[in-house]
Each structure stands twice: as C-alpha cells, then as structure tokens.
Design a protein that fits this description.
heterodimer; A: about 190 residues; 11 strands; B: about 300 residues; mainly alpha
C-alpha cells in the first residue's frame, strides 16, 4: 500500500513538473494596433525619406526561466509600404525596389536568444527581397503588464540594412541611398 | 534613374553588332559553309546583338534566377533562341517545331510567374482554376499571335514584319519604364535594336529571307516582357494586349487593294499602321506619367523669403 502511495506521489510530482515546464514559456501574438515598423533612407544624401509598413504579423514566446528557449518571429507585408505619397508607394512596390509580387513578405525568424541587460539579444534569419541573412537584433523591453485583463509585453529594436546586400539591383540604388534604417516596435498580448 | 546616353549606347551597339554578324555570317555562307542556313545566321546575329546591348545595360544575368526579369534573361531568351536555331535546321519536321513552340509558349507564362504571389501554393492570390485560366489564356494568345505572324511571313514576307515586332518591343520597353519599372523597360531595348538591325540588314543582304526565326524570338520575348510588366509592374492588361497584338495589323496586306499596290507602299502602310496605336498608347502613358510620377522627380518650387543680406 505504501509502495502504491509513493508511486502515486512520484507520478503526481512528475505531472506537476511537466505542467510547470509546459507553461514556463509565455506565448504572445503581435497586437497590430500597437506595433509598427518604420524606416528611413537617405535622399540624394542630403536628407531622409521616412516610411512605414502598415501590415505586420508575428508572435513570440518568452521563457523567463530559460531565455534560450524563447522564440521571436514576424512577417511584414511588402505591399503595405507607405511613405505618404501614393505614386511613390506604387513605385516602391515594383520590381526595381521591393518587388512585392515576387517577394510578398519580409520575414524574421529567430535561431537563438539570450538574455542581456534590459532585454534579449536575438540572432535570426532575416529575409528581405528573397535574400536570407543572419542578423542580430537587440530587443529592449520585455516587461509584462496586465491591462484590462490582457497581459501585454513589448519590445523595441533598430537595425540598419544595405539594400545591395539583399539582392536589390545595384544599378537602381539611384537617388535613394543604399542603406535603410529600420525601427521595429511591437507589443504582444496573451490572455 | 533613367540614363538616355547609356540607352543610346546599348541600342546602337546592339544594332551594329547584329548587322555586323549578319554581314559576317553571309560571307561565311558564301564561302561554302552549307550547314549555316540564313535563318540560323539571323538567329545568331540577333543573339549577338541582344547580348552586346544587355551587357552594356548590365542586365541581370544571375543564376539561379529569382526574379521574373532574371528568368527572362536566363531561361526564356536562351530557350527561345535554341528552339529557333533547331527550327532553322531544314531536316526538323514542322509538326515537331510547332509542338515545341506551343510548349514553349505555355512554359514561358508558367516560368515568368514562378514563385510569385499568384502561384504561391496554399497562400496564392489565385485559386488553382483562376491560375489555369490565366496561364492557358496567356499561352493561347501568345501562340495565336505567333502563328498569325508566321502565316503572314509566308503569305507576304517583308521587312515590315520583323520591324513591327521591333516597334512593339520598343513601345513595351518605354511604356514599362513610364509605369515605373525602369529595369524591366531597359530589358526591351537590346532586343528592339538587334531585331531592327537584323531586319534592315536583311533587306540589303538577304532579300529572300522571310524572318520567321527572328519573329519567333521577338514574339516570345515581347510576350514575356509584357507579362512581367503587367503582373509585376504597373502595365495594364489593355496596354499589354494592344502592344502584343499591334504587329497583327501587318495583316492589312491581305486585303484586296494591297495586292494591287507596289510592294514598298504595302511595307510603308504596314509599318505606319503598327506604329499608330503604339504611338497613341505611349502618348497617353506619358501624360499619366507627367501627372502622377513626374512630381516625384522634378524640382519643387519653394517660397523662401530672400535672405536679408541678399537685399
């Protein structure tokens, strides 16, 4: 009887630990209303043109006990580019720039995560214009708050990409500079 | 940014190289090289001219090709050239040639749309039946225009036929540029120039040639370029259809009144008839460009108050 009791105890403990490890990672889905991807690129090397992508989707999973098990991924719709000028946006969607019909999304998928002061250092595959490269994002943030019954967690990061590194036609770099600076801010929600 | 000087260099080089190759290959044939037929010489001259012009424009010769333009340069042009070289071989049965041309027509449409949002598997913008309708429709139009032009080359051959395809190619290039896809438009220039070069050289050197082989390459490239312009750039379906079908106006030579006219008049009428709708289309597109796109490129007047020290 005592042996059965001990076995039950061990099983219960194992189940409890299992359940604990299953819930250790918190899964968040991007809140599109409070997430944004904006960019700026040099114009004629004298000023900056600003723009944003209006459609972004993604999710992330945070394991606070073991940050290396955390994951981040997001997709930006290239068609949703918006620089505040309809004609220029149409031009940017064409094959000389984003080639949105051929490469509809700009993707990021993490491959390794480590905790750093103030956030996480995330290494991942960044795919732009059909070219995949490994980049490192320094995500600042990660504090969770509860607002009206929904748990929220947000991050901010910035990166700089050279269009010529991502298969953009070098002969078409023209008046808009090769380098673009991208700011990414996102909030994830979970119940 | 468009570079008219570079375009002029590419066009003149492509035309000069193709004409030079026609002259050289005609000399080789006269020396008794029997295996080199006239259509083969024309195809080789066209290829040489296109290559020279494309290199000057630094068009994307990239392997593996990932964009529609790269697929045009790396797959469509070589396949069409290889097919027409094979078709120029007298011993190849005509039925086989036309079977291969039909297959190429289907393959070009599929190849150009490969990996795009239209045919992107489960997340594709088109359902499978819509994709089937569009692919077969484009292929059928391509084959119909190709067949009609070859039929015309046999009924009433003349320099106006390859020239009409060259005119359409030029119009396609300029219109695609005006719609905002500069690189796509540039790709039309070498073919236009070498096609015109081969056609003009043919008038003086090989009056007997009907130009079927070069027309074939021209039609395939024109079709592929219009597909790129429409599905990836800003070219409308109506513009694409007008440009692609414009060379069919050469069929005016089949009317009874044309049979009674001197040959040169028929040639001029054919050329002008093809040029008219293409020119009209270009003018309309230029007006749209001036209205919508030009403000992005031009200097905007500002109302700075003059500096105090300047007064």
């Amino acid at each position: 009887m005592r042996r059965i009791h001990a076995a039950l105890m061990v099983t219960a403990l194992a189940l409890a630990l299992g359940a604990n490890s299953a819930t250790a990672a918190d899964d968040y889905v991007f809140d599109l209303v409070h997430s944004s991807v904006s960019f700026k690129a040099r114009h004629l090397d004298i000023s900056w043109i600003h723009g944003r992508f209006n459609e972004i989707e993604g999710h992330f999973s945070l394991d606070r006990q073991d940050p290396t098990k955390s994951t981040f991924d997001f997709k930006i719709k290239a068609e949703s580019v918006d620089t505040g000028n309809k004609a220029r946006d149409e031009h940017l969607r064409q094959p000389d720039y984003f080639d949105a019909k051929q490469f509809p999304t700009i993707d990021f998928k993490s491959t390794s995560v480590k905790a750093v002061k103030g956030g996480y250092e995330v290494v991942g595959d960044f795919t732009l214009h059909g070219t995949k490269k490994s980049i490192t994002l320094n995500l600042q943030g990660g504090t969770e708050i509860e607002f009206r019954g929904t748990k929220r967690c947000g991050f901010s990061t910035a990166l700089s990409v050279k269009r010529s590194d991502y298969g953009f036609d070098k002969t078409q770099i023209g008046p808009i500079g090769d380098e673009a600076k991208i700011d990414i801010d996102f909030e994830g929600t979970r119940k | 940014m468009p570079n008219p000087v570079l375009y002029l260099q590419a066009v003149s080089t492509a035309a000069a190289v193709s004409m030079l190759l026609i002259v050289t290959l005609a000399w080789v044939r006269r020396r008794g090289f029997r295996y080199l037929s006239q259509p083969m010489a024309e195809v080789l001259a066209l290829l040489g001219g296109m290559l020279a012009g494309s290199l000057i424009l630094r068009l994307p010769f990239v392997w593996p090709p990932t964009t529609a333009l790269q697929r045009l340069m790396m797959l469509v042009v070589p396949l069409a050239t290889a097919l027409e070289l094979a078709a120029a071989w007298p011993k190849v049965p005509r039925r086989l040639v036309w079977t291969l041309r039909c297959l190429l027509s289907i393959a070009v449409v599929r190849c150009e749309l490969h990996g795009s949002v239209y045919l992107g598997g489960s997340s594709a913008a088109w359902s499978w039946w819509l994709a089937a309708v569009v692919l077969s429709g484009c292929s059928l139009v391509g084959i119909a225009v190709w067949l009609s032009l070859v039929w015309l080359t046999r009924r009433s051959p003349g320099v106006s036929l390859p020239l009409s395809v060259a005119q359409a190619q030029l119009c396609a290039g300029l219109t695609i540029m005006l719609t905002g896809y500069l690189r796509g438009g540039e790709a039309a220039l070498p073919l236009f120039a070498s096609l015109a070069g081969v056609a003009v050289a043919g008038v003086f050197l090989t009056p007997g040639s009907n130009g079927e082989a070069v027309i074939g390459i021209g039609v395939v490239n024109l079709g592929a370029l219009l597909l790129i312009g429409h599905f990836f750039g800003g070219l409308s379906a109506a513009q694409s259809v007008v440009i692609f079908c414009a060379p069919l106006l050469c069929g005016v030579s089949e009317f009874a009144w044309a049979k009674r006219r001197p040959r040169w008049i028929v040639e001029v009428v054919r050329t002008l008839l093809v040029a008219a709708p293409l020119l009209m289309l270009l003018v309309l597109e230029k007006q749209r460009f001036d209205r919508e796109m030009k403000p992005l490129l031009t200097h905007v007047e500002t109302s700075h108050p003059p500096h105090a020290l300047d007064r």
